[in-house]
Amino acid sequence: MSSPQTLTVDRIRTELRAARREDTPDADWLSFEARFEAEVPRLQSLFHRLYGPGADGELLQVVLDAAASWQDRPADLKAIDASRAMAPDWFQSNRMLGGVCYVDLYAGSLAGLRDRIPYFRDLGLTYLHLMPLFLAPAENSDGGYAVSSYRQVEPSLGTMDDLADLARELRGEGIALVVDFIFNHTSDEHEWARRALAGDPDYEDFYWIYPDRTMPDAYEQTVREIFPDDHPGSFVQLDDGRWIWATFHSFQWDLNYRNPRVFRAMAGEMLYLANQGVDIVRMDAVAFIWKQLGTACESLPEAHLLLQAFNAVCRLAAPSLLFKSEAIVHPDEVVQYIDPGECRLSYNPLQMALIWNSLATREVSLLAQALERRHEIPEGTAWVNYVRSHDDIGWTFSDEDAAELGIDGYDHRRFLNAFFVDRFPGSFARGVPFQDNPRTGDCRISGTTASLAGLEADEAGTGAGVARILLAHSIILSTGGIPLLYLGDEVGQLNDYSYLADPAKTSDSRWVGRPAYPAERYAARQDPSTDAGAVFAGLTRLVEVRRQTPEFAGGRLVPFHTNNPHVLGYQRPGVLDGEDSTVVVLANFADTPQSVSAETLSGLPRTALELIGAEHALLAAGVTIEPHGMRWYRL
To answer: Which of 136-140, 298-302, 342-346, 606-610 has the lowest mean pLDDT?
Structure first.
């Protein structure tokens, strides 16, 4: 093997030839060699920037691991690689619809989830995100985000073979499988952690372990506490007196990516999952993966280099695998992770938070500003738009953006927190506070869409809760990107307060928004006289119309100012039957009917087809929209 000082791309190419197996078809090997030429120079450059030339020995092993993984990759997955290479924008289709669920809560097991595939097909799902399902500690799992093995499914859910079978069946129905890749940390029960704790020199530097408080104290001068209720600072003390970095919970130990062996090990875990049929990996806690003394250790430049290096490895061995970033940080930082060479998909936490803001305030200024200023992202990428997730809601808008509209960010967050936990007069929301700190005013919000939107409050049969649910979903379905439903929300599932009786969950209010499969509501979904049926009928109509509206493909959005503070407007230009076409969206966030004047609409044609109602509308006289109503006008 060559020495690290003399390793060149030519030398790697020479080493690679010996890695070809006798039974590898010529076409397969030639395709790998073509990707080698495109990706390895980039990968080597990234490795040198992260680790220096001294890590070239590990780089060579990473490439050889990728070659082995490609040769192990099943033929049907290689066929997907080839087809998506011919249609790289497949995830930007207007037919894309995502769903997310916990396997155990929604279906009991992976086998039970397979039984629900016909429903997913009927709903129109093309993307299914399964919340963490890998082996985790029985008591301290953080909802599965403390992973003890990336190659073992939690036994109560099934096996890795069951996951591969599910992926294959989903693929046959045109549904991409999405899983979380928790790569900032492992659980303290992971084999690497056990070996590090035992003093194994091959694994001790997989984590940030210090003999005393000297270095932890130095880092904590500039690093913020994430979960102070769990432990103060960013380090926890081990039984032997040493200190280990644990950004989130005491049982989640941060990996040391300054060690190139950690990169190689995690790249191997990622490629293993890709070969089980995973199409998209949600890159968890991306902002925290690189540490640098004297900084906040969040969103550092090296974090982006790491993601790009992981991306290059996957382009070699699983070229259709996509990354989705999870960065619940300042909007300026969120967009930094979105790039074809880094994460092609990204959650859109700003849009989510501002939909709820508009429902509470009945005004759209912050949401309209965000769509105008922060919606555009690089070509070849897409937002994942959602009304709520498994997690809490944090008010991630920029204080600078708010100040331009005369809004004090600190005071406004306090109002939103009070409103959504029913501490504000007239609130319709029934959220539950998460990490509530009365001293600082910090708080985040937990709850299901229906409970947050007013369905739980039972507003005297007004139908306002149902209307707000549909309004919120109409935004994620029409702004561009992949709309993501938290499964069960499509039938108006309510908060689940049973978590309070579970000692393992009672201190984490986020479980209130993670109900078990709402069987009664699903059973009532075809009855429009029920809340479940009204939500389901309205939402499936919006989904059906979206699928028939090619203008909603891609992510291009043009602002449309309605001159009404309660009515959001935007345009979605596209192509219909080979001709340029535009859909204008209007959405009323007020509790009362609102009008958009003839003067405001004077630049549009006199008439247009309103897609949701499938009726021709006269625009020349202005339009009036019912409370929480929406219009999709094709011009």
So the answer is: 136-140
Say whether pLDDT at 384 is over 60.
yes
How many beta carbons lie within 10 A of that of residue 144, not counting itself?
22
Phi, psi angles (nearest 5°) of residue 177 = -95, 130
| Higher-pLDDT residue of 581, 504 | 581
Is residue 128 within 8 Å of residue 120, measured between CB atoms? Answer: yes
Place of tokens 């549909």: 470
- What is the rounded CA–CA span in Å between residue 230 and residue 269? 28
Helices (H), 454-498: 464-478
Beta strands in 464-518 (DSSP E): 482-486
| Cβ–Cβ under 8 Å, residues 396 and 330 | yes
Whether 255 and 266 have beta carbons less than 8 Å apart is answered as yes
Q: Please state, in angstroms and as integers, the Cα–Cα distance from residue 329 to each residue in 142, 310, 335, 348, 395, following that order.
A: 20, 22, 10, 11, 10
Q: Is there a contact between 216 and 242 (Cβ–Cβ < 8 Å)?
A: no
Paired with 484 in beta bridges are 98, 386
Which residue, chain included where needed, has tokens 């990336």?
150
Which residue in the list 65, 326, 342, 392 is annotated as catalytic? Answer: 326
Catalytically annotated residue among 39, 254, 284, 496? 284
Q: Is 285 left (phi over 0), alpha (psi -120 to 50) or beta?
A: left
Establish whether 422 is a catalytic residue. Answer: no
Pick from 519, 535, 529, 602: nearest CA to 562: 602
Give the SS3 label for residue 373.
helix
What are the pLDDT digits (tens) for 9-41?
A: 888 999 999 999 999 999 999 999 999 999 999
Two tokens at 556? 């291009």
For residue range 464-474, list pLDDT tens digits in order: 999 999 999 99
8-state DSSP, 241? S
Sheet containing 209-210: order of strands: 209-210, 243-245, 235-237
Average pLDDT score over residue span 246-252 = 95
Closest alpha carbon to 487 in 575, 416, 389, 583: 389
Q: Could you tell me how far CA 564 lies from the centroid of its own chain? A: 32
**pLDDT digits over 4-17, tens only?**
456 888 889 999 99
CB 355 within 8 A of CB 445: no
- Taking each helix axis as running N to C, give the angle between helix 349-361 and helix 409-420, from 0 to 180 degrees, rounded to the nearest 10: 70
- CA nearest neighbour of 364 among 565, 609, 149, 218: 565
Structure tokens at 177: 């499988």
- 185-187 and 252-254 as β-strands: parallel, antiparallel, unpaired? antiparallel
First-to-final CA distance of the chain: 65
Task: Look up 189 and say whether it is catalytic.
Answer: no
Tell me the average pLDDT of the chain: 95
SS3 of the chain: helix, strand, coil, percent, to 5: 40, 20, 40
Q: Containing H/E element for 170?
A: helix 160-172
Q: Which residues contact 632 (CB under 8 A, 6 or more apart)?
A: 478, 545, 549, 583, 584, 585, 610, 611, 612
Residues facing 243 on adjacent strands: 210, 237
Task: Tell me the average pLDDT across 528-541.
Answer: 96
C-alpha pair distances (Å), 498 with each of 1, 138, 457, 476, 517 = 59, 19, 18, 30, 14
